[in-house]
Amino acid sequence: MKYAFFPGCVSRGGCPELYPSSIQVCERLGLELEVMEGASCTGAGVLQEKNQKLGDTLNARTFAMAEAMGLPIMTICSTCQGTMSQAHKRLNDDLEYRAEINQILAEEGLEYKGEVVVKHLLWILVEDLGLETLREYITNPLSGLRMAPFYGCYIIRPTGALGFDEHPERQESLERVIEVLGAEVVEFEGKTRCCGFPILTINEKASVSMVANHTIEARDLGADAMVTPCPLCHLNLDGFQPKAASQRNEVIDLPILHLPQVLGLAMGMEPKAMGLNKHVISTKKLLSRFALTA
Amino acid sequence: MEVNLKVKRFDPESDNTESHYQEYNLEVEDYYTVLDSLIKVREEVDGSLALRCSCRASICGSCSMRVNGHAKLVCKTKITDVAKEGNEIVVEPMGNMRVVKDLVTDMKPFWDKVRSVQPWLQPSGPAPEAEYIASNESMLHLNGVMSCIMCGACVSDCTTLEVDHNYVGPAALAKAYRFVADPRDDQDESRLKMYNSYGGIWDCTRCMECVQVCPKGVAPMDRIMVLRDNAIEAGFSNTNGARHTEAFNDSIKHSGHLDELTLPIKTFGMGGIFMFGKMLDIPALIRNIPSLMGLLPVGLRAFRRGKVPPIFHKKIQGADKIRNIFEKLESKK
Known about the structure:
The complex is a heterodimer of chains A (294) and B (333). Chain A has helices at 18-28, 46-50, 52-69, 78-93, 95-106, 121-129, 131-137, 173-180, 204-220, 231-239, 241-248, 259-266, 284-288; strands at 2-6, 32-35, 73-75, 118-120, 146-149, 184-185, 225-228, 256-258. Chain A is of the alpha/beta class. By secondary structure, chain B is an alpha+beta fold. In chain B, a hairpin with a 2-residue loop joins strand 6 and strand 7. Chain B is globular, with a radius of gyration of 25 Å. In chain B, helix 3 (108-116) packs parallel to helix 8 (170-180), helix 8 (170-180) packs antiparallel against helix 9 (188-195) and helix 12 packs across helix 16. Chain B has a five-stranded mixed beta sheet with strand order 2-1-5-3-4. A two-stranded antiparallel ribbon of chain B has the order 6-7.
């Protein structure tokens, strides 16, 4: 299985632990990656606020590059995935619109034919690799660990653009992966809500309040950690958790882990190589349960 | 088929004033909607169950409730589409609203917010002899947003309203858009100024809950995004939201990807220093110094762990191609 790897901005920016952990985990799982160095940011919905066609053109360019490579795209960010899925739907539903955009891409010798497949690593685990195959790679099951899933809006809504009709299993893919890793799923209401990151610089109090609600709810239901396929959620839930704690005047202390990090742990990979020492909320206590340090 | 309706109940006038779940097992036809089932409960099992409904044809907007955690018009929701294992269906009142009794919520704050955006036509000039005429084409694009039946589903599931009641919310802003986009209305500027203020268009998280739950395809969030762009275009750019959007655009345009180190600085209006006075706004700068200082401890904590974006932001391969695309499409949307 080979993919055109779209790392997104944050995995090499604000969450520099995500990129290397993804690369190593995929290598272990036999997922061959070719990094799309020339691909631009998806626009993350922000660019689309101003100019949807511009955003769609940038994503069509990325799709065309992957088609030229003859590979499906792998993302590691809910926001990248959702933004691309929405662009993908618009470009595949409206052929006239696609033709217009292809005219712009033609200057670079590119054409988006409408064939590319764009999948988050989470979906690849379930649909391409298969949970049974994944199970074979688990050498160090995360037994006894209670883990709360946190999806990130863009990989869960709107379902029409995300192929949920064709792939209903996507709705609960994160829970299924947590189970295969040997951990226990903590069901909580917040799992499909917003982490608050997009309004952090606009309405910080509300944004931090969302962090508090979700982390406290998960902790109160017995979660030892939260896992997310979205680095933007990670930035807020991890980075702003101390502020959330002081907003509510209580200790929260809930480690927030990236999806590849928990995969790595369950496959016996080094916590430090997974960047588990790079979080604002320390993972020390969590790792010590498995006699590990980062 | 037999369904197990698990209904959230609350009656401030009863002996038990705590909200609690009550289960009703009943035999229904496969073609029943959730509303049909609830009515059957009320008529045949438990007359004390309170719910609101009228048209039963998704026109009146009375019967929004949460089904399995998400807002839905229950007259439009078939039981076979939502029954979980054991044919269980959880029915709760809408969120973000005070519950009056059982499944009935207080809609007054909802209507107050809709009213606050001035949802009526405000043309200028002398009134025409007959009606105000608008061409077909200029109104067609409003079909989607005019389908709103004010059911409150979007407000129920809005993630910002969960934490900030001051936010005017998706239904009111979709209505606001409807008048900004109406060719007969002539108050775009004052409207945008109003919607641009505290509690307005910039408080949306873009979580898409409203797009997902709207039973009529109004897509409130998409309308809010257009209002944001309209506000910036009309010159209302002195907000963190507007600056964030502009800085985000600039970053992609010039390097192909995001410069996460300078984005918050530019967002808080300090960017003028770095942008050769392009956006230099001294009062905003002074006002926003506390916000930026507030980010410092977060930045330091992350820095100590090595969780920082690269200091030197490098362009992606072929960044000039991205710039070309921007130059081609920026002016014509």
